[in-house]
Here is the input.
Amino acid sequence: MAKQRVVCDTMIWYNISTGLIPKNRCENFELISTYLNIYEILTSNYLLSEPERTFKVLSTLMTESDTKYLNPFQYFDEKTNERFNKNIKDIQIEFVKKLVSGALEYKINIESNNLVTQIQNKAFTNLNLLFTQEKEEVLYTKKIIKEYRDNHSKKEVKEIAKSNAGKKAHLEATRNDFVYLFSKGALNDASNVDLSSFQLIINTLDTFLINLEKGACSWQQNDDEDLFNLIYVEPNDKYLTQEKRWKNIIKEAGMEAYLFEN
Here is the structure.
């Protein structure tokens, strides 16, 4: 029998690497790491302030999991586009592996008093290009979210959320916004897109947007990474996070069956 697949948020890898989550707790499951996990680790302040910790997390992630290397936009394209260019996937996998490999090899030569200088070495020459692109995509995401919020008054949203018909209409609008966002504007209608792989993120996004619109919560730093990481969780997968905020939103969305509780 195949092991249960468990997609992890980034802090889980920190906790596994330090022993806060014992490895034997996860040995009967297939742990899944994601591009966003790697992105968050490599752009964390810990890379400079606590390099040994960072390298230990990266090493744990690479040895203890199966990694999804595509970024969320590429992953959406692969799942929904029959003409997805497989060369893009091969290039992305090779590129991210080189980044991680370069980071782990770079560890050998670290001298704490020369860390900032050494981090400019050849192994990291492409990091700025990669993360400049990611930051642009984050800004694009926030722009879309802001436009969405500006077009819905708190009173309107509260009225919508009172009825089943209103909730259904809001969810349908979120599905269209999800397709528009992750296709980078190429699509704006979800009716012809197979979204069966994205039920967790769509329903969680819908609840998150309602709460934003009602003023029940605010946008916090790293919300984009935390939310987008859900795109990798497919219907038969589980999701492992210890962040109460996201666990509560997932439960409020009626998606608690996805949560890994062990």
In short: The mean pLDDT is 81. The radius of gyration is 19 Å.
